[in-house]
Amino acid sequence: MQQNIPQPYTQKMLHIIANHWISCCVYTAAKLNIADHLADGPRDINFLANVTSTHGPSLYRVLRALASEGIFRETEPETFALTTDAIGLLEDAPGTMKHFILAELGDFYAPWGQLLYSVQTGKPAFDHYYEMNLWAYYTGHETAGLNFMQAMTRLTQFSDKAIAEAYDFSAFQTIVDIGGGNGALLMHILRAVPDLQGIVFDEPYVAAKTQEHILESNMGSQCKAVGGDFFTAVPPGADAYIMKYILHDWQEQDALRLLKNCYQAMPKGSKLLAVDAVIPTGNTAHPGKLMDVNMLVVTGGRERTAAAFQQLFEQAGLRFNGIIPLSIPDVSIIEGEKVD
User: Fold this and answer.
1) Where do the H-state alpha helices sit in 97-194?
2) Which of 33, 181, 233, 271 is the most buried (most CB within 10 A)?
């Protein structure tokens, strides 16, 4: 009897669909804080359903599916424990992905379903779905905005060490981190260069929280947080300006406006360091290529090639000094300089 064996392309498509289902299960577990409820040891489904106010049999089906993927483990019937992969869902685990999952599969989930709209119009599906852009949304939803800040900090924290190792910041006296969130990158740099002074520049509601974090971290003598709008102006007179995962949020017109504001604030000889993905040409695999589609959906921004960065910097009046690779493949440092 002839067997109906799926063709390779059929298996590939089924695998892609299944990954979508798994993602939804992971989001549900993250939203319900399942990993944190298992932090002290295995728990049965009745306990988990009670503390999460969910329907036990349905929660069991989700956790059973996740356990089959190595996310949680069913240690005995209807009892679950953490696994190495599930640790990434803990609230405070080093490198936790929980905040990013809550943003990508929560705030961004419905807009991603409208990807066709973005492809047809060139406009962000997020704006179409919520009838406001991402930044207006987070201004009006502060809890979600702070979660997004945490997500970006946690997601990119491994790049902070790579940035500090790849670039000599000791030549500077002052540095401004534009859109610096909770200041993690800047404080990492400042700890490595004790004589350096720094400013974290971000939205006022972010800067207020960041100033608290700076003081709690005993970095107040080296660092402060300043609130403002970088499309209006940025703090002037610094030796260096750094922006991590900022330019990719914006299309060329807005990215150029931001860079021109930096140019106006920079004294002659000041450096601008953009930390972003640099997209290779052709079919070369790179994590930035999918992130580029995420930018299309969520912010209307884009990841860029080396040539696109050079053009953007030069249009802003900056000399394009080149690209500095990091020890991680996701991003590089793109360096510009004010020479006039």
Assistant:
1) 98-102, 109-112, 115-121, 125-130, 134-140, 142-166, 184-192
2) 181
Tokens for 133? 């852009």
Catalytic residue among 20, 128, 188, 248: 248
Q: Is 141 a catalytic residue?
A: no
Q: Check if the beta carbon of residue 252 is closer than 8 Å to that of residue 238.
A: no
Q: What angle do CA 290, 295, 333 make, to 5 degrees?
A: 80
Segment 73-84, tens digit of pLDDT? 999 999 999 999
Q: What is the pTM of this model?
A: 0.87
Tokens of 336: 């510009």
* pLDDT tens-digit map of 88-108: 999 988 889 999 999 999 999
- Of 322, 332, 336, nearest to 279 by C-alpha is 332
Per-position b or e across 208-235, b if 16+ CB within 10 A of its CB: ebbbebbeeeebeebbbbbeeebeeebb
